[in-house]
Amino acid sequence: MADVDSLSIGRQAFGATIAKATLHIGSLIGSIIFARILGAKTFGGMALLFVLLQFANQPMKGGAVAGKKRLSEETERTGELIAIQLLFNLIWILGLSVVLFAFEDVIKQYTGLQHTVAFILLLLITEANFETLLPLIQARGGINVSHWLETLRSYIRLPIQIGLIVMGFGVAGIVYGIVIASALMIPIGLYILYRLPKAPTTDLIKRYWKYARYSIPQRWIGSLAGRTDIFLLGVLLTPTVVGYYEVAWKITLPGMYLARTIGEGLMTKISARSAKGLNISEDITNSVSYVGILSIPILFGVLALDTELVITVFGPEYIGATPLLVGLAAHRVLRSLTSPLIQIIQGLDRPDQTMKIIVAVLIVNTITGIWLISWLGAIGAVLSTIVAELVRYAWSVRFLQQKVSQFRIVSRPFAEQTVAAVLMYIMISVLKWVLKPESWEVVGGLVAIGVITYTVVLVLFGRNHRVIVQNLLKNYRISW
């Protein structure tokens, strides 16, 4: 177990990002297969199913955030916090099942899928319970381990899902694959925590709830705010349009890998250091400088190859995703900047402040989303999401500037990443004009050239990036 107040954010983020990238490769392969077999309408209905699941499981994840916070302060009470979390999960699932069955027909009509409620409950019992163990593992310094567990689960579920879909199970095969893989991973998660559930003290339950009363509604409202776009598209437009939107969302998803893993490490480390009255400003500045290292080049990459990427990866049926791609990539850049800031605020024991931010984002996203989607269609959902993210970013920065000395929002590494991405865009655009790519081999070659160009420019001309690469190559090892 790592000493969390001296946790190496860089090393943990590097290992976790490799895990995320490995996971995304499997998930992207699955998404491509599912999208091509199911078609845009059913693929969109499946996306709506998982949006509803995301809304349903957020209170459980919000409770896990509280468990992570308390466990980072008192790692010897792991067994008690596992018991508190599992008990809360059970109570939530039992209560929610009554509501879901009461509105079963409405939910079925919304997704266009049979057995939607049964699917949601199966996923809550297995997947959501497994995912609530991961923040507890992170609280003990296991950032790498938690992400590799997710990756392992992904590669267990994928062949099961493909096999079931080939056998004709459709969306049910996708759900059953997740259920089986998650059920297998729960004992492994408990083994890594190296504790069995233990009867908690009343005092610990009260301290858990003191944080959870904010983190639970914050996670739920945050999820609603984060996927208001998909939810409103399902209400105002059609599952087919949702399918287009989900394809663009999947292509730009890697932009968030490093930002999320850095944020998870920061929350743990800042929580431990601030509880001991230690300095945190240097950790924040060093970490936040590198959150855009993936999202920025992805934005410029899709600017150069938007249509080619959609058609090559998902097929011509999803050409409707092309106009959404650049906007969602721009949103990823903003979100990569904001995500660690929210984690920092949580680590400072201010869930009340993050709650205010999330409520503001939800209100802005809902109002602008309804108006812009009614006016512009799916592109309106992209624009409303960007506007809402700007609100989240501005509020987070303003709060941290007041609370953390020497907090900076612009840094030399961020500027270097932007310059390298622009040069990459120029290189790809010139080659695209010369080669006129129509095959997946040429498109893949252009993507590879873009990655190499961005990496070489960043390492050669970015002194800080060069030092980080040298240190990682010299010192990195998986350790938690």
Automatic annotation (TrEMBL):
Name a GO CC annotation attached to this entry: plasma membrane
Major location (coarse): membrane
TM segment ranges: 21-37, 81-103, 115-137, 162-194, 230-247, 288-305, 355-373, 441-461
Give compartment(s).
Answer: Cell membrane
An example of a Pfam family matching this protein is Polysacc_synt_3
The record ties this protein, via InterPro entries, to: Poly_Biosynth_Transport (IPR050833)
Q: How does it sit in the membrane?
A: Multi-pass membrane protein
Q: Which UniProt keywords apply?
A: Cell membrane, Membrane, Plasmid, Transmembrane, Transmembrane helix
- Tell me the leader sequence span: none
The superkingdom of the source organism is: Archaea
Recorded protein name is Polysaccharide biosynthesis C-terminal domain-containing protein
